[in-house]
TrEMBL record:
Protein origin, superkingdom: Bacteria
Designated name of the protein: Glycosyltransferase
Lineage, highest ranks first: Bacteria, Bacillati, Actinomycetota, Actinomycetes, Streptosporangiales
Species per Swiss-Prot/TrEMBL record: Actinomadura fulvescens
Database matches in Pfam families: EryCIII-like_C (PF06722), Glyco_transf_28 (PF03033)
The Glycosyltransferase family 28 N-terminal domain, residue ranges: 3-69
Erythromycin biosynthesis protein CIII-like C-terminal domain sequence ranges: 298-408
Length: 418
């Protein structure tokens, strides 16, 4: 079957879906990756066809931050910039997606492109399924992760999901959907919130049910599959300088904020190094999009390095609780210190805390050297490492690819475009 995996977002969004695509390819499907040009190298590493869409992840992240620390309130202040982004980019992206979809039998859609992706699939008469790395379907059990996934009561929880769906369907993709509707003979309201949220439309959530339990009020189409792991080519190894640092002393602590382009990178790097020294720990500082850096015999600054190879060597991981970094820390079986910045990060930070594999989260806007040092001393207690080790073994035993592969195998021949 010709499968197009359409994705946008940052590294933590794209890498797990590339891994999923590679494993679906190994099961006999013809997989094409459709993603921003920033990630072409990931397609090359996985030896999968790669089609570029004009989506700039740096530009998209700057909608929300513009070089300053983020907070939950940034979601509201970013709305006008999202509307401007829509006017500049959405139609061009849609045309790129449409060209690839015309050669596919089924579309697998990352949540950022899901509204327009479903519209494209419906216009072509082919099936589509959603891929989420966090809870992505309405529930009365908790609010959307973008506002922290706290329970505000059934009605308020559902209202938060409706607002989120309106944002994606209308503010981001409304112009493109109207354009597609005008050129299509399909008469129903494809791409609408109601269409996206149909309980029978397959929607896969690529995280462990041990970490994020499936809400009881989800329909049968909503599955929590287990994690989709990034693809790391065989023979990949850690850089020599990093390997020498690891061999020179006890396991260090990783500090990184992934694709968060935070302001005051020099100050943040100095804060991290100071906290590590207060706690008596060595550190591995990853530059990331924040551009972190610090110097000393007890710390090393590194560029992007596969977390799957690095984290098993760490004593703990200090991170922003993005979905991808959270998954890597869990799989490695090391405890975390979570410093959520925005979006779904507050959700994952609280889940790690409740599972007993992380210290209480420190919101980025409240981060201090003393608070980080205290959290590091907390997670150095043997109980945190023991719980993380047990949970990692359970997570590694899951096969997150299997439910997606099964759904593709069971697609009716009548539902595939002839």
């Amino acid at each position: 079957m010709r499968v197009a995996i359409m994705m946008a977002g940052t590294t933590g969004d794209v890498m797990p879906l590339v891994g999923l695509g590679k494993r679906l390819s190994e099961r006999g499907h013809h997989v094409t990756l459709v993603a921003p040009p920033h990630f072409t190298h990931l397609g090359n590493q996985a030896s999968l066809p790669f089609q570029v869409i004009p989506f700039d992840p740096h530009d998209y992240m700057n909608i929300w931050c513009r070089g300053r620390p983020l907070s939950a309130t940034g979601l509201l202040t970013g709305m006008p910039r999202v509307a401007a982004w829509n006017r500049r980019h959405s139609l061009q992206i849609t045309k790129s997606l449409l060209a690839v979809a015309d050669q596919a039998d089924v579309l697998l859609l990352h949540y950022l492109v899901a509204p327009i992706g479903h519209a494209i699939a419906d216009s072509l008469g082919i099936p589509s399924m959603e891929l989420h790395l966090q809870p992505g379907h309405r529930t009365g059990e908790f609010s959307t992760p973008w506002v922290g996934a706290r329970s505000m009561g059934n009605m308020a929880n559902r209202l938060s999901w409706r607002i989120q769906d309106t944002y994606y369907s209308n503010l981001m993709w409304g112009r493109a959907t109207r354009w597609l509707h005008a050129r299509s003979s399909v008469e129903h309201g494809f791409g609408s919130q109601e269409c996206r949220q149909r309980s029978d439309r397959p929607c896969f959530h690529g995280y462990s049910p041990l970490v994020g339990p499936r809400p009881a009020d989800w329909g049968p189409g909503q599955q929590v599959t287990g994690y989709w792991w990034p693809y790391v080519p065989s023979g990949t190894d850690l850089p020599d300088a990093l390997r020498r640092f690891l061999d020179a002393g006890p396991p260090p602590v990783f500090v990184g904020f992934g694709s968060m382009p935070l302001a005051d990178s020099a100050k943040l790097g100095s804060l991290a190094a100071g906290a590590l020294r207060r706690a008596g720990l060595r550190g591995v500082i990853q530059r990331g999009w924040a551009g972190l850096s610090c110097h000393g015999n007890d710390v090393i600054t590194i560029a992007d390095t596969p977390h799957e190879l690095l984290f098993p060597h760490m004593a703990a991981v200090v991170h922003h609780a993005g979905a991808g970094t959270t998954a890597a820390a869990l799989r490695a079986g090391v405890p975390s210190v979570s410093i959520p910045v925005a979006f779904d990060q507050y959700f994952w930070a609280r889940r790690l805390d409740r599972l007993g594999v992380a210290a209480r989260p420190i919101p980025a806007r409240r981060l201090t050297e003393n608070a980080l040092a205290s959290a590091l001393r907390t997670v150095m207690a043997p109980a945190y490492s023991a719980r993380a080790t047990v949970l990692a073994a359970q997570i590694r035993a899951e096969d997150g690819t299997a439910p997606v592969a099964t759904a593709l195998d069971h697609l009716s021949v009548r539902s595939i475009r002839r």
